[in-house]
Amino acid sequence: MPLPADTDATTPKYLRDKYAIVGVGETTYTRGSGRTTRALGTWAIRNAMQDAGLKASDVDGMLSYSGNDSTFGPFLAGDLGIRLNFFMDVHGGGSSTEALIGIAIGVIEAGMCKCVAIFRSMNGYSQVRIGGTGARSAAPVNGDQLHSRAYGWQSAGQMFAPTFMRHMYDYGTRPEQVAMVKVVHSEHASNNPKAYYKKRYTVDDVLSSRIICKPLHLLDCCVETDNATCVIVTRADRARDLRHTSPLIRSVVGRCSKPRTDMHYQHGPISRVAGYYAKDILWPNAGLGPEDVDATGAYDAFTFTAMIQLEEYGFCKKGEGGDYVASGITRLGGKRPNNTSGGHLCEAYTHGMNMVIENVRQLRHDVDDSCPVGPDGKRQHTYDYREGGCRQVKDIEVTCNLGWANPMTGSAMVMRRG
Amino acid sequence: MALKGDYLGMALTVDDLDIENLEYFKHCAAHDFHLQQCDDCKKLRYPPTTACPWCTCLTSTWTPVEGKGEVHSYEEVHHAIQPAFKTHTPYLVLLVDLDTQKGQPTPDEALRVVGNLTTPDGKLAPPDAVKQIGIGSRVRMVFTDVSDGLSLPQWTLDEGAKQPEKPWRYPQE
User: Fold this and answer.
1) Is the ipTM of this complex over 0.90?
2) What count of Cα atoms within 13 Å lies in the side-chain half-sphere of residue A275?
3) CA distance A302 to A163
4) Chain A CB within 8 Å of residue B72 CB
5) Digit-coded pLDDT (tens) for A329-376
6) Which of A228, A258, A387, B38 has a CA between 20 and 30 Å from the CA of residue B23?
7) Any CB–CB contact under 8 A between A210 and chain B?
8) Residue A60: pLDDT above 90?
9) Under a CB-based contact definition with an 8 Å cutoff, are residues B75 and A214 in contact?
10) What are the chain B neighbours of A154 within 8 Å (beta carbons)?
11) Alpha carbons A356 and A116: distance in angstroms, whole number
């Protein structure tokens, strides 16, 4: 394969466009799946293999992430008759998706295997509640945890809230601006038959919902669901033989972090998040900038996390995230839609996978909305974004995913149409 | 020796080998706040760590630090997820910049110490007190005694300090 003219084998630019996401799959998004994470995982991986047109013998690598709330990859591989040349199950939640895609590229590049299925399987509502209630909240508090949990400072919303509050103080960010993240994502979800919540919400709905942890209202927080999700990564030259015109990976950043990862609030400004550092890896390696991106997938565990990341990665000036998300730019039909599936706030909570899956389908120009399917088996998109309508972004060429673990750690990925 | 305590029905423990946290809480139990001071670069650090975040030095000396500062950010929890806190809502979690070493070694750094807003005797503050505090409020450290040898540092309004006319609070109030 001829290398592009700007190839420099000593930098990650060498890998630009050399890897593709060839298959994506998910289970239904539910509360009360009634199945084990093992059963959910095999279902999602099988869907992704069928989506790609891959047989079990074509997949020889597996990666997963969890917080002791899932089943390890070898069980799922065994169930599906996949013989593994490589696998690893890592500890992690949000920000793992893009990081593991980077690891998959690395292990394939190292010759360790050829094709990696990455999955996240979780009963985030019916077993280990992602909001932190239930057994996890009642666990004993030991050692270093005394500096947080002993103060009732434990759930994701509680741990992140000082960043959000200080952002409002530093930049004058208003609650009604941030609420627009939920409003816009709910519009997108209403055009997504898979979404757990399809109802459209207003700014008033968000601001009048009960306070969970100020500044977070109930509707500033994501949904908790049961589901498994999978993406399959392989080399671009192999991807050409498969079912779809697969999106190519321009660059990835994995779990890039602020200083003092032991307790990041020691190092300010605390209204700054990991994207401040990650953007300087993401954009040069992609050879693109925010202005080149047609749609974003900014992790919306909370309305604030999407807003702060968009500004930190340069989609607007730092501090102007409130204006950006309130402007309509992030809406379908706007200049740069964000989370066209409805994201974590509305579609389902998957620790980042559903936003990557959505952008893969967007870049194939074949997003699974309610538009009619034509004789060629492809949807005939109308680009009418009214409720229940289309959610395909017209002529989309480049997407950017912004994964969030917490204010100090994030991952990111730029993809382009294959 | 390990520490154990029951706080609002929640089990708190510090293990035998966790010598940094054992030492930290030993001073808290004496109501005498101490932090590790690096033996090489002399910077203080919070919370306890096993090396100096600025110079990697592995040794430090526990040093008394004045428990006074200013609220850098806060949150007001209305929906507690831990059973221990469900009957105490709304409660405040404060991130407080100590006056000591504030803005060092870089302008946005501080010894930013976590605590709840409490009454001067270390009980979680009542709702009317919660409403008085915001970014910029001056607070002083007090302690909640959990068990013999285990106390938690907490924050209460510093009655002796000059308070901002109107501390910054969440706008939708």
Assistant:
1) yes
2) 28
3) 12
4) yes
5) 999 999 999 999 999 999 999 999 999 999 999 999 999 999 999 998
6) A258
7) yes
8) yes
9) yes
10) 81-82
11) 15
Nearest-CA distance from B173 to chain A in Å? 11
Residue B6 has pLDDT above 80, yes or no: yes
Catalytic status, residue A349: yes
Angle at A16 between CA A12 and CA A19, to 5 degrees: 110
Number of other CB atoms surrounding residue B102 within 10 Å: 15
φ, ψ dihedrals at A113, nearest 5°: -165, 180
pLDDT in tens, A217-253: 999 999 999 999 999 999 999 998 999 999 999 999 9
Separation in Å, CA of A258 to nearest CA in chain B = 12
Q: Where are the domains of chain B?
A: 3-157
Nearest to B47 among A140, A163, A263 (CB): A263
- Which domains are assigned to chain A? 13-128+224-239 (3.40.47.10), 248-416 (3.40.47.10)
The token pair at A99 is 């990081």
CA distances from B31 to A268, A407, B24 (A): 28, 32, 11
Contact (CB, 8 A) for A307 and A322: yes
Task: Kindly indicate the confidence band of residue A10, based on its pLDDT and cuts at 50, 70 and 90.
Answer: low
Is B114 in Cβ contact with A147 (below 8 Å)? yes
Type of residue numbered A273: V
Asked whether the predicted pLDDT for residue A4 surpasses 70, the reply is no
The C-alpha R_g of chain B, in whole angstroms, comes to: 17
List the single residue in B with minimal CA-CA distance to A176. Answer: B172
Q: Is A299 a catalytic residue?
A: yes
Catalytic residue among A65, A125, A196, A299: A299
Closest Cα of chain A to B89: distance in Å? 10
Question: Is the pLDDT assigned to residue A378 strictly greater than 60?
Answer: yes
d(CA A214, CA A194): 31
- Cβ(A63)–Cβ(A147) under 8 Å? no
- CB of B16 within 8 Å of any CB in chain A? no
Interface of B with A in 110-149 (CB under 8 A): 110-112, 114-116, 135
Side chain identity, residue A167: H
Q: Inspect the interface and report whether the beta carbons of A165 and B116 lie closer than 8 Å.
A: no
Q: Which residue has the tokens 């309130």?
A: A326
For residue A11, pLDDT beyond 80: no
* Beta carbons of A162 and B110 less than 8 Å apart: no
pLDDT, one tens digit per residue, over B16-45 is: 999 999 999 999 999 999 999 999 999 999
